[in-house]
Amino acid sequence: MSNIRVFVVEDQLLHAENTKLSVEEAGFQLAGECENADLALAAILKAKPDVVLMDISLPGKHNGITLTKALKAERDIPVIFTTTFNDEATIKEAAETDPVSYLIKPIQTDNLKAAITLALAAKPVNEVQGEATTSDGAVFIKSGNRLQKIQIKDVLWIESAGDNYCKLVTSEHQLVSRHTLKAMLSELNSDSFVQSHRAFAVNKHQIESIHEKEQVILVQGGKEIPVGRTFKEELYKQLRRL
């Protein structure tokens, strides 16, 4: 199952159950759900999902569109609108909030999976500000209009995410940065990390075991990180210092 966490905002029970089922069938995790727009904002901010599936028509002071505007003022979380309406006026109004996609209910699993995958590839949920490291072993993460402080010791591993991007993974978040893996290691300037593969660096203090035959490292939470042949010697050298 993917580590991507999805929050569902839907007031109609049948559509809510169908959407949650599609989330699970697509291999994502359900971060939470809410049926009332007036309560949804606080619930989303508390759950800290990677993406939100937002019904446009909701009971309460807000509808899905005004709720999305309020959410974007707090956090830069990708929103995918879900609705039974496909008229031009609704689409035009929804487009003003810059959603990453628009799905017609009932939602099909394949369409949902594609929309979420493209949403996260096109717009990182969080962006690491590499220059904003502190002397107490932390790094500041850009989240909406705020910088959120994350302890470097909580990072499990760092993974290359394509050209000029990398991903920092903690037990709760996947944080995407506009840095290469090499540049990120340089920015963090921490001896806690050792590169195990051309696309991976691990936090030495988060390693549970090394499986030499399979050439993988098992970190906290059960994730297997590959060990590259050219990095093996330096990896073992670094670990002997612990």
Automatic annotation (TrEMBL):
InterPro entries: CheY-like_superfamily, LytR-like, LytTR_DNA-bd_dom, Sig_transdc_resp-reg_receiver. Residues 141-242 form the HTH LytTR-type domain. It comes from the Bacteria. Signal peptide: none annotated. Residues 5-120 form the Response regulatory domain. It holds the Pfam family Response_reg. The modification 4-aspartylphosphate is found at D55. Keywords: Phosphoprotein. GO terms for molecular function: DNA binding; phosphorelay response regulator activity. This is LytTR family transcriptional regulator. It comes from Roseivirga echinicomitans.
